[in-house]
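queue> holo job accepted (cytidine-5'-monophosphate)
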Amino acid sequence: MRDWQAVKGLQVAIDGPSGSGKGTVAADLASEIGLPVLDSGLLYRFVAAMALARDVDLNHADQLAALSIDLVPQMDWRPDGIWFEGENYDEQVRGEEVGAGASKVAACGQVRANLLDVQRQRAASGCIMDGRDIGSVVLPDAQAKFFLTASLRERARRRWAQYKDKHTDTDLEQVLMELKMRDQRDAERQHAPLRQAEDAIAIDSTTLRADEVVDRMLGVLERRKLIVTTA
Ligand code: C5P
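queue> job finished
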């Protein structure tokens, strides 16, 4: 039995750079307060994976926009992943090549606009949504917004450890360089760049465990009366 229950329709936005721990923390927070988690990065990853599969040029905004218009009505974005034609695309979208492609796709304003409605519709009944622009653009009225950060080296170390767990042979310095490039692209792009929403609470997780981050979030939600105790 959970200790907490979220108020009806609660929207929690968790934004931050790659490797800041958004996914882990969102999942742990969700199991504490009973809300679905939606990972918005999957949308950009999915468009990138399909672009790579269909030989669409990742630097060509019009082609990417046309592809996203084509895909949006057929894809099903859910807490258990992104589904297309009856198949869960989770495995196909997780790799580093697709991740790097996703940050190019995400720089395209038309693609972002095409993905906005689906995100708002899914959030309407309450959720924890993680990404880069959730608090600033997608859900500006979310009742709680967190901006999760960690040092570049610590984020690279976490990514590298994930790869190692999956028996993928990668060099830490290489992972660090790739993260740095991705950060730069996400922060410097013209459309919805990665930035902390004015009313977001920043949490630096460099030296915190995931459960300590979740405790801080629970404290904020409790003080704002956005969760109630079930005990
Ligand atoms: O979070 P994840 O690494 O899965 O995201 C992949 C890419 O998608 C990011 O590098 C970022 O460029 C983009 N993204 C975004 N806006 C979001 C979520 C992800 O631009 N809300």
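queue> Residues 18, 40-41, 44-45, 99, 102-103, 106, 131-134, 182, 186 surround cytidine-5'-monophosphate (CB under 6 Å).
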